[in-house]
Structure to design on (366 residues):
């Protein structure tokens, strides 16, 4: 396979409703796709972060620059996906940008062999249970109405975004209204400090599956100490950027669950290594999301089909995010999402729709 061209397409797709977290409110999926053209096949990927560095240090503008000036220049036409991480190792950080590059090349490569990414990664399920991430709302009744709608659609678990001032009450309200059978978890996106331990302990009575990333991303020790003071299992998201991080966090008892987001860890190859490390330690993992379009959702579903992904992921149906997606929509069926089986990521942009959502195109190579 020989790479002939790499393009970056800026897209802006309205969300069906604003998504508020402890770090900000999103109303549009504003990112870019990468398109890799080779002599054998075409590959696609999606950059997972936003225009502002609020979830992590990376953002659209920085990723575009680092791809153009530092990552793409290290790619040679005959490169394989497995070589991308090694070839770009000297460039510090920028894992989400690296993940986009590796994934587009991997997609082209797998398409050239006619192999699906699920088969390549070692997926053992043809469908995966879907959870849904519910943003911070203006009121409890608004939250209850949203959760009621998602449960009626069949979602297998509910994740509530929390922050100081929006934690005990929303969780209590959802438990009281929908009962103890609902699989329920929370995500703080680093909004608390170690001084909040006693407050967070009050969530113990609600039998949550897990509490995601309560403390700052670099505070592994803080999570380990917090874990000794609360019963709810701690799950790390932002803190885990590699299999090495996962091994450290597990060894220090900083988490009992890991949210695996391929973008955050540099791509699907490293995501699989985290899965393997976690499985070896008996740590359950689940597939996180970043409000991806269908281009990012397809491969996430394939990863979520690996055997260690034993908890429902943030892999919701396209309509939970977008009235119109750039691919054929992914649909929820009895609480499950089907894993794409076609070659590569198993999903293609619809040319006319993509054109409408594209705000700018840039050639990165040649
Ligand atoms: O922390 O998991 C997170 C969305 C954007 C950035 C970070 C997170 C999220 C979500 C939504 O929780 C997950 C999804 O449905 O894609
Ligand atoms: Mg999270």
């Amino acid at each position: 396979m020989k790479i002939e061209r790499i393009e970056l397409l800026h897209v802006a797709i309205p969300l069906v409703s604003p998504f508020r977290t402890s770090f900000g409110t999103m109303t549009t999926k504003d990112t870019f796709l990468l398109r890799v053209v080779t002599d054998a096949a075409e590959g696609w990927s999606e950059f997972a972060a936003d225009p502002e560095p609020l979830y992590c240090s990376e953002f659209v503008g920085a990723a575009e620059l680092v791809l153009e000036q530092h990552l793409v220049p290290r790619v040679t036409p005959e490169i394989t996906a497995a070589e991308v991480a090694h070839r770009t190792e000297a460039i510090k950080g920028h894992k989400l940008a690296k993940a986009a590059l590796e994934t587009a090349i991997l997609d082209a490569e797998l398409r050239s062999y006619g192999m699906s990414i699920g088969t390549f990664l070692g997926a053992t399920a043809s469908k995966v249970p879907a959870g849904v991430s519910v943003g911070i709302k203006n009121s409890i009744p608004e939250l209850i109405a949203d959760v009621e709608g998602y449960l009626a659609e069949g979602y297998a678990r509910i994740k509530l975004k929390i922050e100081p001032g929006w934690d005990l009450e929303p969780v209590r309200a959802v438990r009281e209204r929908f009962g103890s059978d609902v699989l329920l978890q929370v995500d703080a996106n680093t909004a608390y400090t170690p001084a909040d331990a006693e407050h967070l302990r009050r969530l113990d009575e609600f039998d949550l599956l897990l509490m995601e990333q309560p403390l700052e991303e670099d505070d592994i020790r803080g999570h380990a100490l917090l874990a000794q003071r609360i019963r709810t299992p701690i799950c790390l998201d932002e803190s885990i950027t590699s299999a090495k991080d996962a091994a450290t966090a597990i060894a220090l008892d900083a988490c009992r669950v890991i949210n695996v987001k391929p973008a955050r860890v540099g791509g699907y190859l490293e995501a699989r290594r985290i899965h393997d490390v976690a499985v070896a330690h008996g740590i359950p993992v689940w597939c996180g999301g970043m409000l991806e379009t269908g281009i990012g959702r397809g491969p996430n579903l394939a990863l979520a089909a690996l055997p260690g992904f034993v908890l429902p992921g943030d892999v919701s149906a396209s309509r939970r995010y977008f009235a119109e997606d750039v691919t054929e929509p992914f649909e929820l069926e009895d609480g499950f999402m089907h894993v794409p089986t076609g070659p590569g990521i198993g999903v293609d942009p619809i040319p006319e729709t993509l054109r409408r959502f594209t705000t700018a195109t840039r050639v990165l190579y040649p």
